[in-house]
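Sharing a chain and its predicted structure for anyone who wants a worked example. Both blocks are below, sequence first, tokens second.
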Amino acid sequence: MNQSDLMLRAVSLAGQGKGKTRPNPCVGAVIVAGSEIVGQGFHRVYGGNHAEVEAINMALTQGYDLSSCTLFVTLEPCNHHGKTPPCTQAILDSGLKHVVVGARDPNRSVAGGGIEHLRSKGIKVTAGVEEQACLDLIADFMIWQTTSLPYLYLKMASTLDGRIATRFNHSRWVTCDASRRKVHQLRNVVQAVIIGGNTFYQDNPQLTCRGLNATVQPLAVVVTSRLPDPDCGLFLVKQTPGRTIFWTGHETASSVSARKLKDLGCTVTGLDACGSGLDLGQGLKILRNGFNIHYAMCEGGGRIGMSLLQAGLVHEIWHFAAMKILGDDQALPVFQGRAPQVMDEALEFRLGSVETIGTDVLLKLFPHMKD
């Protein structure tokens, strides 16, 4: 395998720690002797060994002399004492002479300079291999470092002609079983799932992570101008009020219905008005600062998804495309709420990856940063 292949293997390893290392980034590492992988690892859990240490320990346990080996690591090795000792020292102690780094550490609030420190000690360091893939891996960490928002996934699923339901609102199922299992895997990572009022009333969702033995379920957040009757029988109100949050206007949040929902255990939060809707950024900041939410996901319909996109609050899109065509211009579109006059007004995104999931295709997209 070449340098690119080895770094992408480290990226794949790092992804196994997604959701478990917060608020630290996911990191993966691979050690090779010639063309043979002799050690590998990833940051498994916050406070645990870093990826470099995992890989080094694996190689040393097997008796390899690391002075002739090369370490591939997705993120610049740390050069400071945190929950664990600096990885730069572990690298120096191991005898490694060559380190290949995917991306530099964006965290400027700690004593950085891992690459410079290693070079000052005579270690050869190659930087920037598969840099974009490594930066995408830590896009969540960069959001936590630079904003007061949680990292927000927008999950959408549509037919090839961009429809999420028939004109009669029938939507089960747009995607295949494998895609739905993939969504539950993402729910197992995030700490809150956001939907709009239409989805809440029409679909009566549970918004739980099922089939993965999840020990903690994500909070359910419903964005609505109309609060439900406390006796409505809808799942989130009847079965899981303690993990259900309603975002609504300030006046509605002070209503009798709001008080009754709070008595059941629900949280009702009044948000400021923003344009024709609510200030969703305000709500997301409350999730981060008031509930310690680092990952959130929107599974709402096309209007709330578009509202979040236009406000610049979406950090990653998971778009499941089913190999189906409805061919009905009255069927419900995957996105709605805008009226651009020219194509230049379209929202643009960068393709991060494409993955076949069962009979569907999963596109992972990131906001397009224009020059």
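Comments welcome. Residues 60 and 332 are 57 Å apart (CA to CA).
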